[in-house]
Amino acid sequence: MKVISIVFVFFLTFPAFFSQDSLSLIFIGDIMGHGGQIEAAYNSKTKSYNYDPVFQKIKPIIDRADITIANLEVTLAGPPYSGYPQFSSPDALAKSCKENGIDVLVTANNHSVDRRKSGIIRTLKVLDSLQIPHTGTFRNPTERKHNNLLILRKGSIRVGVLNYTYGTNGLKAAKPTIVNYIDTAQMRLDIENTKRENLDQLIVVTHWGMEYQTSPNKNQIKIAQFLLDKGANMVIGGHPHVIQKAIWKKDENQLIAYSLGNFVSNQASVNTDGGMMLELKLVKEGNKVEIREPGYHLIWVHKPNINGKKSYEIIPCNLYENDKKIMNETNRSRMNLFIKNARKIMSQNENIPEIQLR
Length: 358
Description:
Elements: E1 22-31, H1 35-41, E2 42-43, E3 48-49, H2 52-55, H3 59-62, E4 67-72, H4 91-99, E5 104-106, H5 116-129, E6 134-135, E7 137-138, H6 141-147, E8 150-154, E9 157-165, E10 178-179, H7 184-194, E11 201-207, H8 218-230, E12 234-238, E13 243-249, E14 254-260, E15 262-264, E16 274-285, E17 288-302, E18 305-306, E19 309-310, E20 313-316, H9 317-320, H10 329-346
Parallel strand pairs: 1-4, 1-15, 4-5, 5-6, 9-11, 11-12, 12-14
Antiparallel strand pairs: 1-16, 2-3, 7-10, 8-9, 13-14, 16-17, 17-20, 18-19
Helix pairs in contact: 7-8
């Protein structure tokens, strides 16, 4: 028995003065919520949380895109708030994401079930209350049937998004809640159903691979090719907490980014203290939409001590790697090590250069 055609409920619709034949996208990696981040966001005087300082220096780049998509690798399950190994971040994290230019949050990852069924449900409730489109986890089968395929639209361009994870740390979503897992039979069916929706592009966001490995493994490569063969145009990966290479198959109008690394976290070991943002444009000519001008931005998480308290801010490496004002010599040395290693990894890219903003 075939699944009923997916119906979407979320649209990102943009004003008519935008060009009707192009859509710019930015993909960013894992938004983590370690204990240190929660402490840094807390204001003891107001007894409230504020994550806006995290985004201050990176927001101008996020704002370059019509739509920015990120992986929310925490639950918004309410207090008590906690970091690793079972994340629950304040709702203020999602609020700051939206207010600083992140338009879409995917939610299928290995921490989706950290706070069990109630955590899944409350996370979705918070995102809905903030009007942040999402996919990857669902309250029940009916919601998955209607909302699994997230469709984003600007002018005449229609882009679909699907999201899957390799697992949930051994925890299973209690019925009726659902987490999308990387399952070839289900993904094949989901992609087949998208063909009824008159999409111009299909993006599959995958949570996969081995943590801290800077090269994709055989399974990632196999799954990526499977998804492209079945009809996806782009496969965007996360989970390893380090960056991995990206490939633009220009002639096939396909793109793979195996891992974007961390967007923000408290991780500090080699290669985990930063990540990349992937930027590209979709251009529609006639009835065909092509991927154009893909490139990446390296980002690094600066953790300065301000008035005796650690804070967090995401640094666009290209703009600040030679700056001697915003960070001390120790932090600058750490950032430069990340940049050196990241550029070595990204030298394996195919047709995807680093974007220069100077």
